């Protein structure tokens, strides 16, 4: 999984995006052939996307093995967390 930020569409300001889109003179803006029109449209949408859709950090969810029960996965995670805590304490002492 990538660590790059993701767009959080659930917190987007769609009202402001609609307002800006309604203010665009599409007949004037979309001039030229279909490729130019498409590139212009995409650049407008990407600008609005970066302006009105906040970023979020991706959640790191590890999948458990299909044969592992919920209780077993919970115990494995507990063991991993305890080991991390012990390693942190050892590093802090040195």
Biggest β-sheet description: 2 strands, antiparallel
- Domain tally: 2
Strand and helix order: EHHHEH
Describe the global form.
Answer: elongated
Q: What amount of the residues lies in strands?
A: under 5%
Tell me the number of strands.
Answer: 2
Q: What are the low-pLDDT stretches, counting only 5+ consecutive residues below 50?
A: none
Straight-line distance between termini: 33 Å
Overall structural class, as computed from helix and strand content, comes to mainly alpha
Outline the structure in words:
The chain is mainly alpha-helical and 94 residues long. The protein folds into 2 domains: 6-56, no CATH class; 62-94, no CATH class. 61% of the residues lie in helices and 4% in strands. It contains 4 helices and 2 strands; from the N terminus they run βαααβα. It has helices at residues 14-23, 26-29, 34-52, 70-93; strands spanning 6-7, 55-56. It has a two-stranded antiparallel sheet. The radius of gyration is 24 Å and the shape is elongated. It starts with 5 loop residues before the first strand and ends with a helix.
